[in-house]
Amino acid sequence: MQTISTAAHADTANYLAALAFAERRALHSFFDQHVVEDAPGRYIAVDEGDYNALPMTLIDRVVHTVPGRMSDEF
Fold first, then answer.
1. Torsion angle of alpha carbons 34, 68, 22, 56, nearest 10°?
2. Which residues pair with residue 10 across a beta bridge?
3. pLDDT tens digit string along 45-64?
4. How far apart are CA 28 and CA 60, in angstroms?
5. What is the pTM of this model?
6. Residue 39 within a domain
7. What is the mean pLDDT of the chain?
8. Domain count, the chain
9. Domain range for residue 14?
10. Which whole-number Å values give the CA distances from 11 to 54, 55, 57, 74, in the listed order?
11. Strands 33-39 and 42-47: what pairing?
C-alpha cells in the first residue's frame, strides 16, 4: 500500500507553477527570473529587474534561477 501525501503534491504543484511562470517570463526579459519560497510550500517568481539589487531576505529564499533569455547582441 502506498501513502500519498496531498501536502507534498500541493508543494510540488506550487513550485512547478512558479517555475513555469519564471520560464515564460524569462523568454521576454533581459533579467534573471528567480523562484523564491515565500512561505513553506508556497513559491513565487521574482524578476531581478524589479529590484535594484535583490535584498538578502529574497536571496536567502531563492530555490531556482532561470536566466533571462533576451539579448540585445546581434
1. 10
2. none
3. 999 887 677 889 989 999 99
4. 25
5. 0.81
6. yes
7. 86
8. 1
9. 6-66
10. 24, 24, 21, 40
11. antiparallel
